[in-house]
């Protein structure tokens, strides 16, 4: 019966690990273009090895020992190949290596990797970040069940076709009730998380190849939505009657005037405030996307609108009990209330709590002449490039700058009409 697999074994010396002219001997096992290296646990003089002919010159006891080891190892590799094919198991270079080494029962699977990440490394990530990883995990299992008719997969079987098929599955997937279809950028985010997971597997020596090696990530650049001055005023003046709606309205406005994200507003307390020698009140916090040591500290000079909101809530019973300034609701409830306030304000844009952070970056700061370097610092960004994504420049800022240039260059020219 003609095989459907390509399979080769070649021996070679790892010359980058040579010592005194001797280098370790390895077998390169290749199956269907994917390869892995298996140590022969022998060293050989580089001058004694003919790579093209796969032969050892000389007839010393050591050379004969290495020659015999090559014959034995080659036989073990071929036997492992035949056994895996006969058992109709997934045939990969890693599977052959595992069987030769006697560790085939310890091959790590995709489930092993996901469980390790969630239970161990997940302790270092924020709740919001882990929520995204759980969604990617759910989609991976859906993909396996729908397209591969499996509940799990050994990591050695993850190849370029797997990740491209997974990306296609996400794009064509029928969303659950209440969910939106995956856009290009959403798909790329899921692929980015899968790539990070595979990177962990490679570092742990659970995989020898990177299926993302030839994968090109393509994000569609879009302007981030924010409220302009009129919309911000309408949001602030929207009449709400439920106490919870009023709290959410004020939290959103506080974010618009400080740039804090939802999690930061929820943990904001009076210990984050300080006054400089000129009497100005500053807010100082640390952005916590992870529990690592790469946290980004930032300071914001508080505007009068923000100070008024702090005074309004700092003695609120719920705030005093919780040790924070603002009483708050869950992110889901908060965004639901924001939608109701947006409807009352007759704002047509799609608004979430994060829109307030974008509003601070554009309407409150950049459009009023604050430098992008200062805005990046207040937002807690390590790179100005990140700030440029948040901060779109609208016609007002362009018009103001061009009119100032026009006045400087042509002070005597007057507009007609």
From TrEMBL:
Signal peptide: none annotated. It comes from the Bacteria. Residues 222-403 form the Tyr recombinase domain. This is Site-specific recombinase XerD. GO terms for biological process: DNA integration; DNA recombination. It comes from Pedobacter insulae. InterPro entries: Arm-DNA-bind_5, DNA_brk_join_enz, Integrase-like_cat_sf, Integrase_catalytic, Integrase_recombinase_N, SAM-like_dom, Tyrosine_recombinase_XerCD. GO terms for molecular function: DNA binding. Belongs to the 'phage' integrase family. Keywords: DNA recombination, DNA-binding.
């Amino acid at each position: 019966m003609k095989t459907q697999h390509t399979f080769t074994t070649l021996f070679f010396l790892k010359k980058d690990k040579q010592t005194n002219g001797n280098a370790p001997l390895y077998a390169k096992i290749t199956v269907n273009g994917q390869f892995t290296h298996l140590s022969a646990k022998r060293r050989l003089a580089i001058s004694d090895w003919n790579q093209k002919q796969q032969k050892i010159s000389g007839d010393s006891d050591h050379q004969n020992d290495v020659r015999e080891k090559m014959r034995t190892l080659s036989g073990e590799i071929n036997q492992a190949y035949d056994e895996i094919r006969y058992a109709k198991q997934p045939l990969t270079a890693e599977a052959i290596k595992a069987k030769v080494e006697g560790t085939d029962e310890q091959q790590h699977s995709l489930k092993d990797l996901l469980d390790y990440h969630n239970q161990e490394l997940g302790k270092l990530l924020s709740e919001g970040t882990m929520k995204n990883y759980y969604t990617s995990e759910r989609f991976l299992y859906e993909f396996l069940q729908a397209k591969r008719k499996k509940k799990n997969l050994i990591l050695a079987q993850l190849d370029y076709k797997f990740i491209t098929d997974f990306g296609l599955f996400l794009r064509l997937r029928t969303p659950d009730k209440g969910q939106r279809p995956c856009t290009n950028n959403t798909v790329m985010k899921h692929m980015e998380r899968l790539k990070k997971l595979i990177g962990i597997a490679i570092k742990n020596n659970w995989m020898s190849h990177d299926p993302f090696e030839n994968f090109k990530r393509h994000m569609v650049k879009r302007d981030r939505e924010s409220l302009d001055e009129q919309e911000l005023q309408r949001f602030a003046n929207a009449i709400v009657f439920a106490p919870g709606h009023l709290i959410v309205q004020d939290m959103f406005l506080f974010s618009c005037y400080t740039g804090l994200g939802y999690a930061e507003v929820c943990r904001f307390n009076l210990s984050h405030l300080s006054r400089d020698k000129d009497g100005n009140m500053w807010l100082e916090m640390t952005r916590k996307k992870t529990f690592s040591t790469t946290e980004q500290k930032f300071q914001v000079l508080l505007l009068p609108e923000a100070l008024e909101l702090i005074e309004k809530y700092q003695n609120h019973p719920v705030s005093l009990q919780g040790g924070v300034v603002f009483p708050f609701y869950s992110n889901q409830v908060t965004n639901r209330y924001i939608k109701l306030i947006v409807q009352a304000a007759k704002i047509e844009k799609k608004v979430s709590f994060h829109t307030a952070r974008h509003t601070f970056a554009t309407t409150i700061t950049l459009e009023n002449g604050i430098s992008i370097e200062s805005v990046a610092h207040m937002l807690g960004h390590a790179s100005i490039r990140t700030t440029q994504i948040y901060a779109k420049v609208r016609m007002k800022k362009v018009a103001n700058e061009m009119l100032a240039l026009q006045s400087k260059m042509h002070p005597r020219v007057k507009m007609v009409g």
